[in-house]
Design goal:
This protein is of the alpha+beta class and 258 residues long. The protein is 28% helix and 26% strand. It contains one helix and 13 strands, in the order βββαββββββββββ.
């Protein structure tokens, strides 16, 4: 290859002899070729840089879409929590209305536990046959039923949950005998009374127990104070009525005061 004064001459010679071949490029053709090569190289460079730019932008788009999906999920959780909070606040307002300044106890037949004086129990009249049935409301105030009996093979919820302030009076639903007291992981501090005709009553989540095992109690006698012991999220009384060991709907036997 040699450069002429006016262009470029390229000579091709075969290795094993024979006639060669010559290509002459005019100055214009040479300049056009150089410009074409430079343009092609520039185009390739632009395409390569554009591909990398698009790849980077695509990656950013995927990350942004994933972040948007995550934010939408979090927003849905917040919305559900807000709805649940609104529901709980509504229930709380109902409970507060029950225990406001104007609320008064509704237990004129309340019997407080004995003071420990000799013969204190013997001065009371013998309970009647009707008094032995667990038909009295187990609190000195109406409270608010937050969960009713749920029947099922496994006894999903065998009684009532009644929201009341802590240390409210809990009273016997009927005359009977204390057969069990103690503490349980589920019920917390509890009392079990035995009545006639196969009836038993259970009082759970207590803060204080005011009776001993074996004691006889009369209808509406205070046996404990309400609390939030055991598996509980707020102060309330868990109240059960059993007959021959089977749960009975308490609302079929006791009437919640209005």
């Amino acid at each position: 290859m040699k450069r002429g004064s006016r262009g470029l001459t390229i000579l091709f010679l075969p290795e094993e002899g024979g006639s060669g071949r010559t290509i002459r490029l005019s100055p214009l053709a040479l300049r056009m070729g150089i410009l074409g090569a430079v343009g092609l190289a520039a185009a390739v460079a632009v395409m390569a840089s554009s591909w990398w730019f698009l790849a980077i932008q695509t990656g950013r788009t995927w990350r942004l879409e994933a972040k948007v999906d995550s934010l939408q999920t979090e927003q849905m959780k917040v919305r559900l929590l807000a709805e649940e909070l609104e529901r709980v606040e509504g229930e709380y307002e109902k409970i507060r209305s029950l225990f406001g300044a104007g609320a008064t106890p509704i237990a004129p037949d309340l019997w407080l536990p004995p003071t420990g004086l000799a013969g204190a129990r013997n001065t009371r009249t013998e309970p009647s046959e009707e008094d032995h049935l667990p038909t009295a409301w187990p609190l000195t105030e109406a409270g608010f039923v937050t969960r009713a009996l749920i029947e099922g093979d496994a006894g999903d919820h065998p009684g009532l949950d009644i929201a009341v302030p802590s240390d409210s009076y809990v009273r016997a639903a009927g005359a009977g005998r204390v057969i069990r007291i103690g503490e349980d992981p589920l019920y917390g501090f509890f009392v079990v009374l035995e009545h006639r005709d196969g009836y038993q009553t259970v009082y759970g989540h207590l803060s204080t127990i005011l009776v001993d095992r074996g004691h006889s109690v009369r209808r509406s006698e205070v046996i404990a104070l309400s609390g939030s012991t055991g598996r509980s999220t707020a102060a309330h009384l868990h109240f059960e009525i059993l007959r021959d060991g089977a749960p009975v709907d308490p609302l079929s036997m006791v009437v919640q005061p209005g």
